[in-house]
Design brief:
By secondary structure, this protein is of the alpha+beta class. The protein contains 12 helices and 8 strands. The longest helix is centred in the first third of the chain and has 31 residues, at about 70-100.
């Protein structure tokens, strides 16, 4: 076997030859990496890669593989990839637009919000990371999501929110035609706020949950918007709807709730009620007895209606705004 030798007269120094051999050694790996992590979309001057798509949808894809029937799995995964890619494209467009406005979110702000959310839920760093992992998220992924959310909210404030104006006439029309409507005999239209206690809750003990509930009720009694308080601080599933749990007949309510509503007039708030695993209080929007419907006075719900109408109009304008962003952008999908 001939030995590889180096001569001073050779046009290729030994270091170049060694680099070439190393390149040949790892070339199959590099080629494979290129196939695994290819570009799946071009969004103006930005790229979205397959690894980004797979990372974003990992938990969703895993559920499909585990739960979808074999004959439907391929189509379900394809549809999921398209949906997640659409979300990533929307996120890129929003980030690009925010950059045009000079909107930035500092690392310090992200850290502050991350630890505030962790403390509100009464988690240590290790516990919070474990809870995030159950949703397929790492702490860094969660922080990235926080950055996207804050950036989007600031951008919407500049481009959309400042242009949404709700008039008193709109509020009064909504109040007279839709607010507090009841279709049940002896029905009560109710808003709810509640504070849980124990592991995974914002309150570690029953005493702390009671203290939180008292503080929240105090904010409501001082005139703050019930729905906004519910949306921001309530631990119950109804928080996403501003605490609105709809209409109940009186006999559908638990005994403690019935007692809380005894003598209550529309627009008023119940005392705090111990519900076993949480403390709750409620606001009566309207009630029906026979054919008579009694509503909360307009002045007590005006700001709640304004917030509701603003939310509806923001959603409508946001959807149109995103469509326009897409129409004005160069987008090439390569799934």
């Amino acid at each position: 076997m001939k030995k590889l030798t180096y001569s001073h007269s050779s046009p290729y120094p030994m270091v170049y030859i060694l680099r070439f051999l190393v390149f040949l050694l790892f070339f199959p790996v590099l080629a494979q990496a290129e196939v695994i992590d290819r570009v799946v979309a071009v969004v103006n001057d930005d790229l979205i890669t397959l690894s980004e798509l797979n990372s974003e949808g990992a938990l969703h894809f895993e559920k499909i593989r585990e739960q979808a029937p074999p004959e439907e799995r391929s189509l379900a995964l394809t549809a999921a990839r398209k949906e997640i890619l659409a979300n990533l494209i929307e996120r890129k467009l929003i980030a690009q637009r925010a950059a045009e406005h000079g909107i930035t979110v500092s690392d310090e702000e992200i850290e502050m919000n991350y630890f505030r959310i962790m403390e509100q839920n009464n988690f240590s760093e290790e516990q919070f990371a474990a809870e995030l992992a159950k949703s397929g998220l790492s702490p860094q992924m969660y922080k990235d999501n926080l950055r996207n959310q804050i950036t989007q909210q600031r951008l919407l404030g500049v481009e959309i929110r400042s242009k949404v104006v709700i008039t008193n006439e709109q509020i009064e029309e909504y109040y007279n035609t839709k607010y507090g409507q009841i279709n049940k005999e002896d029905g009560l239209h109710i808003l709810q706020i509640g504070c849980l206690w124990g592991r995974g809750s914002k309150a570690a003990s029953k005493e702390e949950a009671l203290m939180r509930t008292q503080q929240l009720r105090g904010m409501v009694m001082a005139g703050e918007n019930f729905k906004e308080i519910a949306r921001s601080y309530s631990d119950l599933p109804s928080a996403t709807d501003g605490g609105d749990i709809g209409v109940f007949a009186r006999d559908e309510l638990s005994r403690p709730m019935q007692e809380g509503f005894d003598g209550l007039r529309a627009g008023e708030v119940t005392p705090i009620i111990d519900s076993g695993d949480s403390f709750q209080f409620f606001k009566l929007l309207s009630s029906k007895s026979g054919n008579v419907i009694t509503q909360a006075p307009l002045q007590t719900v005006r700001e709640e209606i304004r917030a509701l109408l603003q939310e509806q109009e923001l959603k409508e304008k946001f959807d149109k705004w995103v469509i326009q962003l897409r129409e004005d952008a160069y987008i090439k999908e390569q799934l």
